[in-house]
Amino acid sequence: MEVAVCVKRVPMVGGKIVLTADGQDVDTRMSGFTVSPHEECAVEEAVRLAERDGGRVTVLTLGPAAAADQLRDMLAIGASRAVLLETDGREWGPIATAAAIADALRAGGPYDLILFGNEAADTGGFQVGVRVAHLLGLPCVTGIKHLEVSGGRLRAGREYRGTEEAYDLPLPAVVSVKEGINLPRYPSLPGRLRAKRAVIERIEPVWHAEGLRKERLRVPAAQHKQAEILGTGAGAVPALVALLDDLGVLP
Amino acid sequence: MTVLCLVERDGEHAAEVSLRALTFARSLGDVTAVIMGNAATRPAGPPPGAADSGGDAGVGPALAADVSAYGAAEVYAVGLDGYAPQAWARALEGLAGEVAATAVVAAGTDRGHEVLAHLGAITGLPMAANCASAEPGTGGTLRLVRHRWAGSLLEDAVLAASPALLTVAVDAVPAVPAGQPAPAAVRAYQPVLDEADLVASATESAGRAGGASLATARVVVGGGRGVGGPDGFGVLEELAGLLGGVVGVSRVVTSEGWRPHQQQVGQTGTRISPELYLACGISGAIQHMAGCLSSKHIVAVNTDAGAPIIARADYAVIGDLNEVLPALVAAIRARG
After folding, report:
1. Least Cα separation, residue A193 to chain B (angstroms)
2. I need a surface site. Which of A63, B103, B215, B218 has the fewest CB within 10 A?
3. Which residues of A195-220 are buried (b: 16+ CB within 10 A; e: fewer)?
4. Predicted ipTM?
């Protein structure tokens, strides 16, 4: 079983998003980077499939040279091969990203299963996996939280308005998953050492403009409020009870 | 200027998120609603007094009334039973051509995103997900504000493409009925499909409603790293029980395996909109806040007065949840 997983390097943001002075990007000078959460689960899912059925897991990312760090993180949790679609650091739109990934998958495949995260944590475009599926002529399901693969087919499940939806597809196929499908493992020490030594394959795709163009980013105004302090410790309980009473939530 | 709006169902009615999408779509032109027929939700028997002139693709009177109340002058009832995202996109592609649509709009739900992503892939057009507003720009472009980081960051963008493919951020726009609604004419539409469009087709089973009670709960008692471990949730469960609510947790709690992922509130978990969100021992990372900002009232209990959540909550108690919550439970019980 050959599985490819496409991941994205995203800023690690905590309590507050800080923007660069020109409003074009998240200021990451004081923060690190990570793999977008849904995609970390996609890699874990792929590694479990390969551990069970044999085969290889290839991780791909489109990003700057430093995105090799995120590929190594994924190698450390069990991926066996990594491909960096290296950019000059500019933001890529979903159409160009999908085209570059589809080219890389064609060149490096064939793959039985291609996994994505449902949406990138930062740009939230909700589409690269679907576009890649169309470019490769493969069936596709998104938002998956339960996946089984056997006998050349996959069964995938997700929730819709409180009910379970199930899909049954032939392989090869494209699946985008959501966090919660599994609990990703921590990297082992041998895994980290292997990842450190691994060779990362590099491709340099060509950026192109598309019809949706970012002008600038803004932090929404509603974020700047300040809570009214009801008190400290158990001493605040009478005020808290009075508040809950006002809100009409007490029994 | 015709704008197609994909309308999702909630039983025999239109889903609230789709009423919001219709409200959004009205600002872009004359709205034509698109409703996918679905035998499973089709009312039994002929609908009495239906304004249904074009067959019975499953658009009952309540649904037709909803979409016309929110400004759709026409409704296309598409003859597709069940959910197949690529087939739904094919139907929107055909209809967009038929009515010369300048925009195709859907609610920013799992289905809305998925179907419009397929439509973008089929047509080669850009798709802007989770828009909060759209207005005409120069040269036939649209000026958009869209959500990044699940709404924790806004992007001003220009979209130069027709039709414009947009999903509407589910909590960005209130549903506002149209000023002078007229009964919408319902027409049937049969999309031209090939086999590949139906390979991914959903079978639904009413089963576990994972996260559903969290999404609709009137009170959510939240627990984060400050709970300390998997054994610390008893007092949160007890308080939630007293208040008729449920327990929700932050991402660190599910990543550590302390609680199941269905209980996660946030960008990669469930979005909640309770009357009260009591967030205990939660620092307030933006990914968490993205999931709870629709709460009417947020009360934080945190030992750190400088925690980000204090700047996002309405009220706060500075203190250890292991001291505050037992005292709160005792005080509520003492009221009788």
Report:
1. 24
2. B218
3. beebebbeeebeeeebbbebeebebe
4. 0.96
